[in-house]
Amino acid sequence: MLPFLAAIDGCGDDNPGSETTPTEVSEGPSGKTGKPSESASYRDPAVSVTNRINDLLARMTVEEKVAQVTAVWNDKRRMDNEDFSFNPDSARTLMPHGIGHITRPSETSGGADAGRTGAEEVAYVNTIQRWLVEETRLGIPALMHEESLHGLAAKHATSWGQPISVAATFNRRLTRELYAMAARQAASRGAHVVLTPVVDVARDPRWGRVEETLGEDPYLAGQIGLQAVLGFQGDDDKWDEGEVFATLKHMAGHGEPEGGNNIAPANISERTLREVFLQPFRYIVKNTEVRNIMASYNEVNGIPSHANKWMLTDLLRDEWGYKGAVVSDYYGVKELTDRHAVAPDWKAAAITAISAGVDIELPDREAYPSLVASVKDGSLPVEVLDQAVGRILKQKFDRGLFENPYLDPAKALDNTPEDDRLVRKAGAEGMILLKNDSILPLGSTFETIAVIGPNADKVLLGGYSNEPAHFITVRQGLEAHFDGSQTNVVYSEGVRVTEPGSWYKDPVIAVGEEEDRLRITAAVKAARDADIIVLALGGNELTSREAWAEGHWGDRPSLELVGLQNELVDELAKLGKPIVSLVFGGRPLNISNVVEKSAAVFQCFYLGQETGHSVADVLAGQSYPGGKLPISIPRSAGHIPAYYNYKPTARRGYLFDDVNAAWPFGFGLSYTTFEVSAPTLAAPEIGTKETGKVSVTVTNTGDRTGSEVIQLYIRDRFSTVTRPVKELKGFEKILLAPGESKVVSFDLGPEQLEYLGPEMKWIVEPGDFDIMVGTSSRKEDLQAVALRVR
């Protein structure tokens, strides 16, 4: 057995088989030639995966090995006919030695193009796999990867709310159900790998990718991210029908870039890197067999992540024991030369990246093809290449691609009514009620509701969305809800956030003030005779998006509402009508004026393709608002950072201003009221290796059924290394009927109490801990009890 493959073995291999000797193959000018026999060990499913990999590696030329650590994306256009069907003649030129990944087979021309239906994609994937199996020397199938940030990004698939909204639900079970839905759809269409979930910790709301994250807290990101991985991959390390291999991303430090600019340096200490930004990765690696991790674009303390051997090998593999593959972010390898300037050319960039631990270059073959020359001239040890190839081959063997590379196009899954119900529920649970002056839920006494605002009748999906089966706007949802009733719904746009455009394309065009003031006048006229105004405003997919290239911007230095939205709010407020405001968009904004002039306010982020129905359900009281803030809302850009888990010497105060967040992490109101008892400990004292318990009794003291998220925070009162003023260490979402009570308990053990000590080792220090339980991170929403650790 080749010694470097010991690290590859360990998951998805329950058939040890026997040691085998590869069949001899003839040598030619470019290496090994001749097609292996059908009895070759790597073709035999009765042989262990490790031995199959070793057998196959021993047969491969350098060219064939390098092909397995590369992918095809843009060249698909050269590899396809005019009707986007597969052209084998082009394939012989473009991937004569096979390929590791095919990038996004759901797409045709790429970008914003809607692409193939499910059946069309399966037929396309089958033709590629058949050519690879039958026409290449070794017959190695390809892994197909897709985007699935908030549902499979493909034509007629299902799109739920952006991850920031999923995090807002604080609902583990619901999260798993959503991602399992995407897994079924992706797998049925021929995908084997999805580039999801994002577990970056977002600590700067100026950053345009906040919507893709699970918020500002490492514990929440780890918990929700774990459920996403389990939804994709299942509970064990075996592949089952309807599952796909997940990809954790982006490792690491991506969520607090300098100046809020995407891809900017992350200048953070190793302690903060480990305790905050790496913690979700560590937790999920520890608790699942996640198959892929993606390196981040940014540099961390001067070392780009794609070149960071300490991060991708020493820490990830040697310290944490990770067994899966590390994939590059799109073009991340060549950017070691083109952006970071730590490699003089792409050949050097490829050597640097694969030596650091990046196993495959996505989305295209750019820098890694030079690895052929690097191995042959001795600048890269072949063992380094073999290790990366082995990790990619392992996924192909574990997935069963050598035995069954084809699918039935008739079984490709599209969106279903059952999917709609789940997305509708998730959208309602992701709505965060920030204010309610007893106006909600809406009664039946309103004759006319005015639906106003730039986001009232717009498709609001955010990035990585493609073309889902449908989208229900706020206006459509309310019209459908009140159809046939005595309530009339009127609509006016009011203002625009930007002129219409695309998440993919530029430029982003600002709206002329003169035109918008005409729209404001029309909106005021439309609302004048209404009984209540539902105002949908905020951002859109152009004002908060991934800034992936110079000129394609998505970060902002301001958190103010874009354009004349505040002017619209002011003019509508003059009518004296109650206003219910819905704030959409990918990140927190300064909504102080909106809150001041509205009777009720929801932070919605993005709620998915059933947005209008989710909103109508909640406003009418048919569903309960179940969301909590997964990220604090600052008062302004000058109040950044605003995350709740700051150190004791931070947030000391500002002259003439409040230093605290406008709305803190974990906050969210209900239509009912809850009483949370003082926390009690099972034992007032525990040992450093023991596990105790804290409990509270929660009672619904209102007259409506509702949900509450009970949250556990801890604080080490005195520690060798400074600790945050509080840290989330547990949460449970409960649903209670009026008058109903429930006891909620949390463990208190090493997982909750540990931190990185002076020697950078995880320890539990003896001493006193504040154990805080309540309904948000705000001091006034928490009650504390002291735990002694001996």
Description:
The protein is an alpha/beta fold and 790 residues long. The protein folds into four domains: 1-22 and 35-59, no CATH class; 62-404, TIM Barrel; 424-639, Glycoside hydrolase family 3 C-terminal domain (Rossmann fold, 3-Layer(aba) Sandwich), CATH 3.40.50; 674-789, Sandwich (Immunoglobulin-like), CATH 2.60.40. The strands form eight sheets. The protein has a six-stranded mixed beta sheet with strand order 12-17-16-15-13-14, sandwiched between helices. A five-stranded mixed beta sheet has the order 20-28-27-22-23. A hairpin with a 2-residue loop joins strand 1 and strand 2 (31-33). Helix 2 crosses helix 15 and helix 18 (513-527) runs parallel beside helix 19. The longest helix has 18 residues, at 118-135. The chain is globular and about 80 Å long.
The CATH superfamily name of the largest domain is Glycoside hydrolase, family 3, N-terminal domain
Largest sheet: 6 strands, mixed
Tell me the strand order in the biggest sheet: 12-17-16-15-13-14
Total DSSP helices? 22
In CATH terms, what is the fold-level topology of the largest domain?
TIM Barrel
Low-confidence stretches: 1-31
The average pLDDT value, as a whole number, equals 94
Percent in strands: 15-25%
- Total individual domains: 4
Indicate the radius of gyration in whole angstroms: 27 Å
Structural class designation: alpha/beta
CATH top level of the largest domain? Alpha Beta
**Secondary structure tally: strands:** 28
